[in-house]
Amino acid sequence: xxxxxxxxxxxxxxxxxxxxxxxxxxxxxxxxxxxxxxxxxxxxxxxxxxxxxxxxxxxxxxxxxxxxxxxxxxxxxxxxxxxxxxxxxxxxxxxxxxxxxxxxxxxxxxxxxxxxxxxxxxxxxxxxxxxxxxxxxxxxxxxxxxxxxxxxxxxxxxxxxxxxxxxxxxxxxxxxxxxxxxxxxxxxxxxxxxxxxxxxxxxxxxxxxxxxxxxxxxxxxxxxxxxxxxxxxxxxxxxxxxxxxxxxxxxxxxxxxxxxxxxxxxxxxxxxxxxxxxxxxxxxxxxxxxxxxxxxxxxxxxxxxxxxxxxxxxxxxxxxxxxxxxxxxxxxxxxxxxxxxxxxxxxxxxxxxxxx
Length: 356
Prior knowledge:
Layout: H1 4-48, H2 59-73, E1 92-97, E2 105-108, E3 114-117, E4 121-124, H3 130-143, E5 152-158, E6 163-168, E7 174-177, E8 182-183, H4 184-190, E9 198-205, E10 214-217, H5 225-228, E11 231-232, E12 237-242, E13 245-250, E14 256-259, H6 268-274, E15 287-292, E16 298-303, H7 305-309, E17 323-326, H8 330-355
Parallel strand pairs: 6-12, 13-17
Antiparallel strand pairs: 1-2, 1-5, 3-4, 6-7, 8-11, 9-10, 9-12, 13-14, 15-16, 15-17
């Protein structure tokens, strides 16, 4: 009996160890069975992530990839006048004719304004809009008995944007894209509008060789109906002329050159008013106007300023580069000079008394 007891104890220990290991394995198997579906789901998600050429996947790379994907899927901005764009040499067109693969592809407009189509040769499309060119190609296919009722799709893939040149007295002179004809008012708005020195004349030089320039009476303060009907074509040059300058000299408080105002007009009273009025030594009975004619000759005209200022004579409209001269009264000059001499003498006497 004494020898059998030690052998029984190890047997019980082995049973306990086996039982403990079995319970551990059962617990591990249970945990794995629970986590296995989740591990598979994570693996599928990892397969859906974007791949990178090398290196670890970083958060910044993920943002860049998402941004590029969003940009590629975004809509392009098309100018509002794109539908009126006239086709020109250099444009790349995409053509698709249903049920005829020979007329599917990209076609570049050559220097003569043509696209070369299979079996049809050159078809001129320059100067037409995309819808007009599509109708033109369709008519050519029907005329040459290629198809009875062709379904034609024509799109503009590449184009060179025509420009308009705006110079002169505008806020931002330069060249601006102009896909189709626009009103003169809208074209001037592209350059920020006329400046304060702009006159009332706008010169439009057409892009067409040999065409005569158009001179438009335009005011930045008001736009009459006649101006609204003036259109500018792509390639034209728009020149906003500077307002004329009138020079007021002589016995005025601020002699100098003054820009013609009030829509490009200026009369004598307005010119003197811009010069801060006549000085105390002015002879206001008669003023003199030096005017240059179109042939270059100059005339000197005496004008009754006092009667004009009192409304007894009609005012006179001035022209650009006119010179208005207000003379000095000799008697007033003598009196002013005498008063200056007396004041100087009095100051000198007072100074002398103070010294001695």
